[in-house]
Amino acid sequence: MQEQFDLLINSYVDNNVGIADHFLSKNLSDNLQQNIYDLQQGGHMKYAGIGNEKIADANQQMRGDKIYWLDKKNNNIKEQEFLDKVEDFIDHLNQTCYTGINDYEFHYAVYGQGSAYKKHRDQFKTDNNRKFSLICYLNDDWVAADGGELVIYQHDKPQTISPTAQKAVFFKSDEMEHEVLLANKCRMSITGWLKRV
Ligand code: OGA
Ligand code: NI
Fold first, then answer.
1. Helix (H) and strand (E) counts for the chain?
2. 159: Cβ below 6 Å to ligand 1?
3. CB 150 within 8 A of CB 188
4. Among the listed ranges 36-50, 67-81, 136-150, which one has the minimum average pLDDT value?
5. Which of 53, 111, 147, 150 keeps 20 to 30 A from 187, CA to CA?
6. Residue 172 burial by Cβ neighbours in a 10 Å radius (0-12, 13-18, 19+)
7. Phi/psi of residue 58, each to 5°?
8. pLDDT single digits (tens) 52-83
């Protein structure tokens, strides 16, 4: 576990984009994927920004994913295992990089076939609590033709990252411009933010 944490942090320190290919165990990735199937079945995954129709509408042109927030109150043992791992990672990050992270928020995300998320940054203008973005992918057997890559715009040549199961990606929320390319089949992840509040 510690090894994956160090991989993620060291690649972040080297290139501003941390990548660890086996951040999640296969078992945890499978179980979280199953949680998403259950949430979909129960009709719980909602377009981001829903509640205010105008915002939801504008958002949907920007992003086509449906989300559901993780919460300890959901009393889901697999979700808890994921959040425990996040808390261990935060402890490790704070100890090694003096980042002072003291809060987090994560949601499941599903991009249906034909959806994407246009180029953006993750920090809101009105709220600078989000310090780091951490994305974990849950897609088995993802191939190039499936699309849905995360593209990060940092250098002249954008960096393209395939959303394969167990992988985690980590970057600074206010700095890094990124987008999700059109997914040609259902694309699942857990996306979240490490915060200082
Ligand atoms: C986001 C986001 C990237 C991804 O949810 O803000 O940029 O690869 N996600 O899912
Ligand atoms: Ni983003």
1. 4, 11
2. no
3. no
4. 36-50
5. 53
6. middle
7. -60, -40
8. 555 556 666 789 999 999 999 999 999 999 99
Ligand 2 center to 41 CA (angstroms)? 25
pLDDT band at 84 (very low <50, low <70, confident <90, very high): very high
Pocket test for ligand 1, best of 62, 135, 189, 190 (most atoms within 8 A of CB): 135
Structure tokens at 150: 């995360």
Average pLDDT over every residue of 117-125: 87
149 lines ligand 1 (CB under 6 A): no
- Nearest alpha-carbon partner for 131 in 48, 63, 197: 197
* 183 phi and psi angles, rounded to 5 deg: -90, 135
- Give the Cα separation of 156 and 182 in Å (integer): 22
Q: Where are the domains of the chain?
A: 2-49+59-195
Fold of 2-49+59-195: Jelly Rolls (2.60.120)
Q: Of 197, 191, 188, which is closest to residue 40 (Cα–Cα)?
A: 188
Q: Residue type at 148? A: G
By three-state DSSP, how is residue 196 classified? coil
pLDDT, averaged across the chain:
93
> Which stretch of DSSP H or E encloses residue 133?
strand 130-137
Q: Specify the residue with its C-alpha closest to ligand 1, atom 8.
A: 150
